[in-house]
Amino acid sequence: MPVDIVTIPCLSDNYAYLLKGPDGVVLIDAPEAAPIQQALAVRGWGLDTILITHHHHDHVGAIAALKAEFGATVIGPRAEAAKIEGLDQLVAGGDQGGSGAGAWQVLDVPGHTLGHVAFHFPGAHAVFTADSLMALGCGRIFEGTPPMMYQSLCTLAGLPPETMVYSGHEYTQANASFAATIDPDNPALQARIARITAARARNLPTVPSLLSEELATNPFLRADQPDLQATLGMAGTPAADVFAHVRALKDKF
Ligand code: ZN
Ligand code: FE
Questions:
Q1: Beta strand ranges found along 109-173 (DSSP E)
Q2: Residues with CB under 5 A from ligand 1 (ion)
């Protein structure tokens, strides 16, 4: 049985996702109750499980309302348990759940927050990355360090290239404007930016994105590439240092 994945715009620029598979309906992150309730209602779905990536309010704010309405089991990062109300099960990297095409594995992806996790569904060729790896970008480093975030991105970059990346925000247009300044000679990036601009002009989501395309165009994943290092005047520099430089430029962009 293949899984069905629904993208739900929430708040001003967040995304939550519903995944319907062999274990029922799973929600990834809970930014806002009303659009999630509506997405469930129009499909006649209940809600069995809520997976939480990190403690920020725009990812957990609707846990209480959805749990009260549906009695869903809420699963989230052990390292952030003290900061998240309503968790029923605690997980960390290497833990697993679900079954068949709905089976998931937890990846530790600290940096944006120290306990941030991603949920990889190998059978669905999907990874839910929230504010770690994003389309043409990565989350701002609030709690961790640049080497920590770079390691997290490398973990995600090592997933099968046909994996679809479901990130937590619609930040792609701004990320594209920045990427164009960092990697101006990358034809794959130029082609992708044209598609992103067309999609946003019609108010369409730019997520999910294909991991292989992130590897070819996301400047934060290309910190180890000689052509990008040369463009930045950083040939031969350790990739984690190149990443830290690019992240610092983005913070000021
Ligand atoms: Zn966040
Ligand atoms: Fe967020």
A1: 117-121, 126-130, 133-134, 137-138, 164-167
A2: 56, 131
Q: Ligand 1: distance of its center to the CA of 44 in Å?
A: 30
Catalytic residue status for 112: yes
Q: How far is the CA of 14 from the centre of ligand 2 (A)?
A: 7
Q: What is the pLDDT of residues 179-217, one digit of tens each?
A: 999 999 999 999 999 999 999 999 999 999 999 999 999
CA 177 to ligand 2 centroid distance, Å: 20
Can you name the residues that pair with 138 across neighbouring β-strands? Answer: 133
Query: Is 4 an annotated catalytic residue?
Result: no
According to DSSP, residue 64 is labeled: H
Ligand nearest to the CA of 168: 2
Could you please report the per-residue DSSP string of 213-228?
Answer: HHHHH-TTT-TT-HHH
pTM of the entire predicted model: 0.98
Any catalytic annotation for residue 183?
Answer: no
Report which of 89, 92, 115 is spatially closest to residue 105, judged by C-alpha positions: 92
pLDDT digits (tens, 9 = 90+) for 82-118: 999 999 999 999 999 999 999 999 999 999 999 999 9
Identified catalytic residue from 55, 95, 108, 112: 112
Q: The domain at 4-252 falls in which architecture? A: 4-Layer Sandwich (3.60)
Q: Could you tell me if 92 and 54 are in contact, meaning their C-beta atoms sit under 8 angstroms apart? A: no
